[in-house]
Amino acid sequence: MAISKNQIKYVKSLQQKKFRQMYGNFVAEGDKLAKEILTHSKIKIEGVFASSTWLGNNSILFSNLATDVFEVSEKELGRISGLKTPNQVLIIAKQLEHSIDWEIVNNGLSIYLDGIQNPGNIGTIIRIADWFGIPYIFCSENAGELYNPKVIQSSMGAFLRVNYVSHEFEDLQNRLDNIPFYGAVMNGEDVFKMKLSENGLIVIGNEGQGISSKILEKINNQVSIYPHSLNGSESLNASVATGIICAAFRNQ
Amino acid sequence: MAISKNQIKYVKSLQQKKFRQMYGNFVAEGDKLAKEILTHSKIKIEGVFASSTWLGNNSILFSNLATDVFEVSEKELGRISGLKTPNQVLIIAKQLEHSIDWEIVNNGLSIYLDGIQNPGNIGTIIRIADWFGIPYIFCSENAGELYNPKVIQSSMGAFLRVNYVSHEFEDLQNRLDNIPFYGAVMNGEDVFKMKLSENGLIVIGNEGQGISSKILEKINNQVSIYPHSLNGSESLNASVATGIICAAFRNQ
């Protein structure tokens, strides 16, 4: 089945937040991610657009799919893709609804992203959470959106296992039993030299501004990575800092 | 002084590797980076293109500059910029020549990037090296180039303090006194649970393929981060892995 002009327009519209919100759908691209999504039990597929080769090789993945499967030419894929180098397949799926198990949050480790904007950073942090077995990432309303295609692509499927939920900090705080808050700052205590608890919320601030003052005053433990004043470096990338802090927690 | 069509063409050409190599120059953009470069003793500036406001505020930085300073309109800056959102100033400078102090390399920690391609990852790894006081990053010939504008922008000035030098692995090995090689792999020893030496070379492999087999066989210590098989995550981002391994070394 060839695709129509209207379909091209529709798929491309999902590169924009307002249309993602309007339709409740998102786009994911590439062989590996498509396979992960198609084999995921909770995701509802809305459309598959792929090369004839890919469809031939992967027919088992969508033979029972109650949705439209379109064979597209390389040129057509280029027209609907958000990637510089389109990769065989593009999938449209329904956005997931996240339910929060507060007992898990209260007894384990979670991450809070305060105004993190860069979609590559958000995707990378979702991958980090997945790696370290952290099931919840909460974020402020001004943080980037999960279904931004750059977040989805850079999370590399980790968004299927980690919950990324927008939640204002005060409201979140009210839901939590007094668990410790750890905030990544420039001149805090060395995260590798302190006693870390098994549960808690790791707060990561915006790339440029750090943690907002309103949230910072709620934080019991200000932590830093290898604090020093030896050289000119000003900060680590937000996702790198998150990875190092998570490693410190998991290696206590 | 307004800029000519030929100048626009020249500045834009530096977005491409072949022209950077031909002229031996590179481009850096934005207020912060421009200030760092203009105040750096070793960098030779070839041109400054900035808004009248920026020039007015920062005249002290280039009053003694034996080079051309151009006032550009927002529109002109947009035409020469490689950024989505041009930021006040663009600088052209001569590429640095790196000399290697092998005694420092032999007695300290260095990083080797085996085929790392993503310019954002390379810039972020340069920032990590800067943060942890690691003066040398070596890379294979097929790794990304330092002066790619995306590397320069994401390194955020760290490239001024860290040496990023292309060096084939075998040749590098011949230059080193038997220092330990640590390679980041999927199923190695937990980097936080082993004894790490104070000197050594941390080898980070390509984003998709990992460390090439030719190099892997030279590595004495295969290390991993939080090795586990609990969930579906396949890997950490290369720069995040580098950051965590460097943190492990610095927190021995």
Question: Could you characterize what this model shows?
Answer:
The structure is a homodimer of 252-residue chains. By secondary structure, chain A is an alpha/beta fold. Chain A has two domains: 90 residues, Ribosomal protein L30/S12 (60s Ribosomal Protein L30, Chain: A); 149 residues, Alpha/beta knot. Chain A has a six-stranded parallel β-sheet with strand order 7-6-5-9-8-10. A four-stranded mixed β-sheet of chain A has the order 1-4-2-3. In chain A, strand 6, helix 9 and strand 7 form a beta-alpha-beta unit. The mean pLDDT of chain A is 93. Chains A and B meet through helix 8 and helix 12 of A and helix 8 and helix 12 of B.
